[in-house]
Amino acid sequence: MASWLCSSSGFSAIPSLFIITFLSKHYGRKTIFIIGNFNLLISLFIFYFSTTPTQILISHITSGFGYAACFSNNILIVAEYIHPKYRGVFLAVKSTSVVSGVWAANAIGTFLNWRVIPIFGLVLSFFAFTSFFWPESPYWLANKGKFDECKKSYIWLNGSNDEVFKEIDFLIQFEKQSLNFKFDLNIIVKEEFYKPILISFLLMIQYHFSGKFIFSIYALDIIKKITDSESTAYIGMLILDGITVFGMYFGCFLAKILKRRTLYLWASVIGIFFLFSISLYLFLCEKSLVRENKFVSILLLASFSVSISCGPMILSTSIYGEILPSRFKSLGVILTALLFYLLLSTMLKIAPVIFKYIGLDGAFLFYGITSGLCCLLLVKYLPETKDKTLQEIEELFKRKERVIELEKLQI
After folding, report:
1. What number of other Cβ atoms are within 10 A of residue 55's Cβ?
2. Sign of the Cα pseudo-torsion (20, 24, 28, 29, in order)
3. 38-72 per-position pLDDT tens digit
């Protein structure tokens, strides 16, 4: 039941993705955001009045639409509403909010009655209804040919100066060229279509196979097994959650001053090093070659948490929101989000089985190997997106196709 409670929201989000993609394409980002918050309000009310694990499970399943909107529609909102100079930081902060919520829930569950958790969520959901006063996404408006409304929305969001007016003109010109675009099977073989989607897939795979989110959810059980102390487990869980949140916000700061690709890859490499280190340490402890020390265990876990939090945890969803081309963004979002929730739910559901049959040392080794393979591929294919407009990023994937077309013309 514990594993179903952890994974049910992800499974119920999968069918909602198809509905969100359709509604977002035809009715805009703002509308989906509002509907998603109403959905979360309903699920939180059910959660608050639950008296059995089954009723709590129902509340989690009910939250599917809002949960799906958090990853798909809300990523697009941040990517499309925020100026390129600040987009990376805001996307990173958006990713950080998920783990901040886990930390808050763990802290509330440790010191207060668990019913305070849905109350906390209800307050945040009500705050989110400030969205009634938002304009619609200027990118969505331009894509629909509503260029006057697009200008008003872009100015409302970014102010009015010469640079902003140039960006508006470039956006409108770019979208006018895309208005007559029709998707056909031939586009699938073009790099501008499959490359950003495959890179998004790699980012999502590493996000989950780094083991960090699974560790955050099952932190109490994992630390209890490592230290063999329940009191240490509760204290360690809250400390490591706090360190994780600190690491993510520190990563947000680094994302402002460092290149996105550099930060992601270096943080990933350091995180993978600590995954292997933890695996080796636990193996030596299990074979009684090293005496287990709870301070060493927590230090290794904290180092792993900070490094992974600075990179894959905050930047994977950020970069995904930036690199998907506007012409087939709906398809890219639904494919990437489907993979995200399938991996999320499946990994959370089978995590207890992995811990049972290959042990914690084997689990960390498994996460280290899979995360390392993803990192090797990203070293080769991950582009730099810092301070680039969404149109400039899209152009990065078109250059090779243009070279090929020119070569064909010359032949």
Report:
1. 13
2. positive
3. 888 999 999 999 988 889 999 888 888 888 887 77
The domains of the chain are located at: 2-134+190-410, 135-181
- Alpha carbon separation from 125 to 36, 66, 117 (Å, rounded): 10, 10, 12
The single residue listed with the structure tokens 């894959």 is: 312
CA neighbor of 92 nearest in space, from 255, 243, 208, 246: 255
pLDDT in tens, 148-169: 898 999 899 888 888 888 888 8
What is this structure's pTM? Answer: 0.74
pLDDT of 272 reads 92
Helix axis angle for 230-257 and 84-111, nearest 10°, is 170
| pLDDT computed for residue 49 by the predictor | 92
For residue 252, report the phi and psi dihedrals to the nearest 5 degrees: -60, -40
Distance between CA atoms of 318 and 94, rounded to whole angstroms? 9
- CB proximity list for 207: less than 8 A, separation 6 or greater: 213, 312, 313, 316, 317, 340, 343
Nearest one of 258, 378, 331, 396 to 76, comparing CA atoms: 331
Q: What pLDDT is attached to residue 293?
A: 78
Closest listed residue to residue 224, CA positions, set 235, 213, 214: 235
> Domain 2-134+190-410 adopts which CATH fold?
Growth Hormone; Chain: A; (1.20.1250)
279, HSE (Cβ side, Cα atoms, 13 Å): 17
- Residues in Cβ contact with 89 at an 8 Å cutoff, skipping those fewer than 6 apart: 252, 255, 256
Which position has the token pair 């550099």?
262
Euclidean distance between CA atoms 269 and 206, whole angstroms: 12
d(CA 265, CA 233): 31
Nearest CA among 68, 81, 179, 74 for reference residue 136 = 81
Distance CA 67, CA 339 (A): 14
Per-residue model confidence (pLDDT) at position 185: 57
pLDDT lower than 50: segments of the chain: 403-411
Counting beta carbons within 10 angstroms of the beta carbon of residue 193, is it exposed (0 to 12), middle (13 to 18) or buried (19 or more)? buried
What residues contact 305, with CB distance under 8 A and at least 6 apart? 212, 215, 240, 243, 244, 247
CB-based contacts of 359: which residues, under 8 Å, 6+ apart?
282, 286
| CB-based contact 143:164 (threshold 8 Å) | no
